[in-house]
Amino acid sequence: MKPKITITREVFDDTIDYLKQHCEVDANQADQAYSPEALAARLAGQDGLMCALTDKVDSTLLARCPTLKAVANIAVGYNNIDVPACTARGIQVTNTPGVLDDSTADLAWALMLATARRVTEVEAYIRKGEWTGWKLKQWLGVDVHHATLGIIGMGRIGQAIARRAFGFDMKVIYYNRKRVAADIEQRVNARYVNFDELLAQSDFIVLQVPYSSATHHLIGARELAKMKPSAVLINSTRGGVVDDAALITALKAGTIRAAGLDVYENEPKLNPGFLALNNVVLVPHIGSSTEATRRAMAMTAAKNLVAALTGAVPPNLVRV
Question: Active-site residue among 9, 164, 285, 294?
Fold first, then answer.
């Protein structure tokens, strides 16, 4: 008998075709988000769950799903899943690292360039029909080339961001919980500094750390005050790493120049203070959103789930 699985959000047809070769599939191709109660009901008698980062898998849900054996997250982060609670129940948890590194790094750079050159501001200006001609001091931005790039979090994505700085002749510094190996530093041409040094020296600061209790509000009022008034902050990692209210206050006051954001606290709810600001670029959590990458993420999650339910070791098993 094939194991039974539930997919919480719409995925690609080839992903479902692959899963149907190995499992009985309950797929939510209507893409209507399940409430916790609805998800628990769908998981009655199910062996596996393929979920998105918007799905909360906690001890309350797990208590209602005694047959569950595996949870495959379609994301590299897994702060939506209580991994210790799953492990205590013998439930395997997997994620999708690696396949989204370059696309996410590209998006961080898109935010950096758009923010530095005020792209969203000037596009709105043109669309309103307000452009009447060229002026020497019109819409002045800041240069990315030759600037100092500070990366907080030098994992795979952080390294991909650093590699892209070569073409802009940037000085790259980084802070990481643990200093990376010397050969990695050499490969990405990055120098390790302490946290406060990075805040003070960087023209552009890019965050690439996972969200946890240890990184909650890693950037708040104290940290923003240590940055240059000309600094640009990019958050393309997880909401909650930045204190959004403190960032809005800093952007209003000119404590820093600008910000580019892909993620937010309590998303998809957005602090309305951001909408009143011109010096922030806002995009809706699209870091990995290219067709090739999202297809690869879905298929990676599917292969993880099949492996977990057929007695193999999942390629991307999350361990605690």
Answer: 285
Q: Contact, 242 vs 218, CB < 8 A?
A: yes
What is the enclosing helix (H) or strand (E) of 235?
A: strand 232-235
Active site residue 10: no
Q: What is the DSSP letter of 55?
A: S
As a whole number of angstroms, the distance between CA 119 and CA 34 comes to 36
Q: What's the pLDDT at 147? A: 98
Domains and CATH numbers, the chain: 4-99+291-309 (3.40.50.720), 101-282 (3.40.50.720)
User: Whole-structure pTM over 0.90, yes or no?
Assistant: yes
Pick the catalytic residue from 10, 121, 197, 267.
267
Tens digit of each residue's pLDDT (9 = 90 or more) over 120-162: 999 999 999 999 999 999 999 999 999 999 999 999 999 999 9
The token pair at 64 is 């209602």
Cα 84 to its chain centre, rounded Å, is 22
Taking the chain, what is the end-to-end CA distance rounded to the nearest angstrom? 31
